[in-house]
Design a protein that fits this description.
heterodimer; A: globular; B: mainly beta; globular
């Protein structure tokens, strides 16, 4: 079946512009995660959605970052007034939310802020 | 303190060596522990998971959890160049709580 898809695969933007990154999770998965991976750096948790519960936003690095998940399916990560340090690969993952909660990752969006 | 701590490496070993990758965690509620493997420019994929303490073996890979010391290990026997990747450990308590990962250890197996 279809896996997690993300779009765009690559995004180049100018400093100060807003960007939107999209994630299409596996159908039926109630949990959705966003992560960031900077060049040569590790996996950094950003935000977690589970069903209709309030999202866990504890990983968002600043108020320029926000995410929403519409209808319990597609999610959009928005970065406002992008900065060069926002350049990274943004990964989305979805899972059933049930133990052991295997996560299925998308291919990522490579964001470059000039 | 992060909930899951992992040495970022890089770790370089010769082909055929036994590799030991380790993590520590602080959340006592974790019941499931997992290892993901991430090849360059790809998303992470589940390698194996264990429930509670103990060992689990899958081919050349053995995952080990010691809940008393909050220590997670992954051993790779007869390491191959194709094992070169970043390895992420994670913990999960169940009950629709989020999975928490370490930052990953980069492994390079030299032919």
């Amino acid at each position: 079946g279809a896996g997690v898809s993300q779009s765009p695969s690559n995004k180049v933007t100018e400093k100060g512009k807003d960007v939107e990154l999209r994630c299409d999770p596996i159908s039926g998965h109630t949990a959705l995660y966003w992560y960031r991976q900077s060049l040569g750096q590790g996996l950094e948790f950003l935000i977690y959605f589970q069903g209709n519960s309030a999202p866990d936003k504890s990983g968002l690095p600043s108020d320029r970052f926000s995410a929403e998940r519409t209808g319990g399916s597609v999610s959009t990560l928005t970065i406002q007034r992008t900065q060069q340090e926002d350049s990274a690969v943004y990964l989305c993952a979805s899972s059933s939310g049930l133990a052991p909660d295997t996560q299925y990752f998308g291919p990522g969006t490579r964001l470059t802020v000039l | 303190q992060k909930e899951v701590e992992q040495d970022p490496g890089p770790l370089s070993v010769p082909e055929g060596a036994i590799v030991s990758l380790n993590c520590t965690y602080s959340n006592s509620a974790f019941q499931y522990f997992m290892w993901y493997r991430q090849y360059s420019r790809k998303g992470p994929e589940l390698l194996m998971y264990t429930y509670s303490s103990g060992n689990k073996e899958d081919g050349r890979f053995t995952a080990q959890v010691d809940k008393s010391s909050k220590y997670i290990s992954l051993f790779i026997r007869d390491s191959q160049p194709s094992d070169s990747a970043t390895y992420l450990c994670g913990g999960f308590s169940g009950g629709y709580q989020k999975v928490t990962f370490g930052t990953g250890t980069k492994l390079q197996v030299i032919p």
